[in-house]
Design goal:
Length: 80
Amino acid sequence: MSEGNLKYYAVELFVQYALFNEYTEAKRLIVKRRSHFTEMVVYILEYIVEKGDEEKLKFANLMSKLYNDSIVDKEMLTDG
């Protein structure tokens, strides 16, 4: 996946689920796609910084929560 496509995919994923407040579904997808998530975080943060509006900051907060929760979930799945 190219850098541009990854950035687009990352932003669209969060827009799609954050707008509809589908936290559980977004979290499931993040855990499932964990291998790409760290890269996605970088692109989403860049996008948020570029736009700098209030709606994008909400995505940043959601992203941070999803990221932290997915780490915990992944550790529970592998260590437990």
